[in-house]
Design a protein that fits this description.
mainly beta, Immunoglobulin-like, four-stranded antiparallel sheet, 11 strands
Amino acid sequence: MVDATQGKVAIRDEDVKEIGTLDLVVTNPNKDSFSATIDVVASGKPVITSTNPAQLTSTSPKSLTVIGQGFLSPATVTINGEARAITASDGKTITVALLDKDLAAPGVLKLIVKNPGPDGQTSDALDVIVK
């Protein structure tokens, strides 16, 4: 309690790792209570630190694990500006389905993660080499 009309609540990281709502209920010692709903929205810029595998070839598996932080569900991933299907995500990794054309020729794939929502931020592009 800050005073008779204000209080502070500590919210854990896991409470706000995904977009949605939090239901807050406060019960006073005299058993009076009130409730509120808090919207959890996208904030912060997702950061890509690496991929697994780090480089690709024409014979690579048809998936790529993106490693980083700040990935909110449901984030989107683009490769060279085209959306790719995501098969798994946990906030620090995203597994992305690759297309045959992604691996067809040597070059660079520009990988970007965008968090959801109208204010969802976009990561810097990461270059993934196809040998």
